[in-house]
Design a protein that fits this description.
Blueprint: H1 4-9, E1 11-13, H2 23-36, H3 47-58, E2 63-68, E3 76-85, E4 94-104, H4 113-127, E5 132-135, H5 142-150
Parallel strand pairs: 4-5
Antiparallel strand pairs: 1-2, 2-3, 3-4
């Protein structure tokens, strides 16, 4: 098992054909969301279904996955997607990245791994000419809110939800 410093030093881009290694971490983050907001999330599917989902998702050319630590058994991961939005009469054109998922294994949290993943994402985004990072996170997830604030990603839009 790698140490926390090694995990910080070993942030790498995960090839799409290795997507299956993210399944245990995706399970952790999805189980958390199901537990807190079962009305918004389906029960966590079987491992093979999650692996298929990850494989299909990461095969898209605009999607990038970063992993911390050993690529065969990462301690954390981040998935982002490059997006372009045309200008409208109300908003300028935008070239941004959407941070869709970030998860650090429960045994490795609060060691700066999420910050290291976001820092590497920023490097790759700058290199690609991406101007902004956008992220959404669940209202219950104070750990994500803290991580995003520490990364300089501040809330700009609030989405409210309720029954009809």
């Amino acid at each position: 098992m790698s140490t926390s410093q090694e995990d910080h030093d070993m942030i790498t881009t995960l090839p799409p054909d290795r997507a299956a290694v993210l399944e245990p971490l995706l399970r952790q983050v999805h189980d958390l969301h199901v537990a807190h907001q079962p009305q918004h999330y389906l029960p966590t599917p079987a491992p093979s279904v999650l692996r298929g989902f990850l494989s299909d998702w990461l095969a898209q050319p605009q999607v990038t996955a970063l992993v911390a630590g050993d690529v065969g058994a990462p301690t954390g991961y981040l998935v982002y997607e490059e997006e372009r939005r045309a200008a409208s009469v109300l908003k300028p054109a935008m070239h941004h990245a959407v941070l869709h998922h970030i998860c650090v294994d429960a045994a490795h949290r609060r060691q700066g791994i999420a910050a290291a993943l976001i820092a590497q994402m920023r490097v790759l985004c700058r290199d690609a000419g991406i101007e902004r990072i956008r992220v959404t996170y669940a209202a219950f997830n104070t750990a994500s809110a803290r991580t995003m604030a520490q990364a300089g990603l501040d809330p700009v839009t609030i989405i409210a939800d309720g029954a009809v």
